[in-house]
Amino acid sequence: MTRMRLTALAAAAAALLSGCGSDRGGSAAGPFAALREVGAPVVAAAFAARRATPAQPGTLPRPTREQIDGADREIIFSAVPARGSGATLAKIGQNGAVSTYTTADAMTLSLAGGVVVASRGLGEDLMSAEAPSAAAIAAGRGGHERAYYFLGGLDQKRILRIACTLQQTGGATRVELVGLSFPVREITETCTGSAGTITNTYWVEPSGRIRKSRQWLSPTVGYLELELLSR
């Protein structure tokens, strides 16, 4: 099964944040202007600080459909269920198979076809990853190995390797995202290793596009819930 080795993403993300490699070109302010277009109050409210009583991801505010459709770039929403916080992110660049998205306060996520391969600004971040491709996930079968790369004490690289299997766990259904309904089927990735059992869930469109997912990021952050809001 195809796997992607995705390394050195920190430098790429830094370059993207400075305005290099933008998918639309333009000034360094472009990505943040895109977030203002979807509504600064919405972004500020969505990217809430940790709460004493975590909110449910579905209750966190999203931009409106008009704001999403009016933005000049792809918009996603990410929630951290363990913290009760979430954020609207705008795409700021493409480097091969990897798309990078940012919040207004410069937290970034890097996704390869919807699969999380790096993060910055969440605390215990994922430096890079070896992960299955979106096409492999859409196939919904077979086994593979994942590798997660973190930074430990004294900036030493720490690697977590786990063995995973994919299976389709749900038939045809639909997901509702900000006024639109998308046909999907559910694919589950079950992984075991020294960290115990990790279960990632993907809702995949007939085209193979990952529309929604729940993916493990790191031991302290836990899972991210991701929604592709753009059409």
Description:
The chain is of the alpha+beta class and 231 residues long. It has one domain (3-228): YmcC-like (YmcC-like fold, Beta Barrel). Helices cover 16% and strands 46% of the residues. The protein has five helices and 14 strands. Strands 1, 2, 3, 4, 5, 6, 7, 8, 9, 10, 11, 12, 13 and 14 form a 14-stranded antiparallel beta sheet that branches.
CATH architecture: Beta Barrel
Low-confidence blocks of residues: 1-31, 39-53
Number of helices: 5
According to CATH, what is the class? Mainly Beta
Q: Distance N terminus to C terminus?
A: 29 Å
Write the CATH homologous superfamily: YmcC-like
Mean pLDDT level: 83
Domains counted in the coordinates: how many? 1
- Written as H for each helix and E for each strand, in order along the chain, the element string is EHHHHEEEEEEHEEEEEEE
Which class do the helix and strand fractions yield? alpha+beta
Largest sheet: 14 strands, antiparallel
Please provide the count of β strands: 14
Note the overall shape: globular
The gyration radius over C-alpha positions equals 17 Å
Helical residues, percent? 10-25%
Descriptors for this entry?
231 residues, alpha+beta, YmcC-like fold, 14-stranded antiparallel beta sheet, 14 strands, 46% strand, disordered N terminus
Short description:
The protein is α+β, with helices and mostly antiparallel strands and 231 residues long. It is 16% helix and 46% strand.
Map the helices and strands:
Layout: E1 3-6, H1 9-17, H2 30-37, H3 40-46, H4 65-70, E2 75-80, E3 85-95, E4 98-102, E5 108-112, E6 115-120, E7 128-132, H5 134-139, E8 143-151, E9 157-168, E10 173-177, E11 180-193, E12 196-204, E13 210-218, E14 222-228
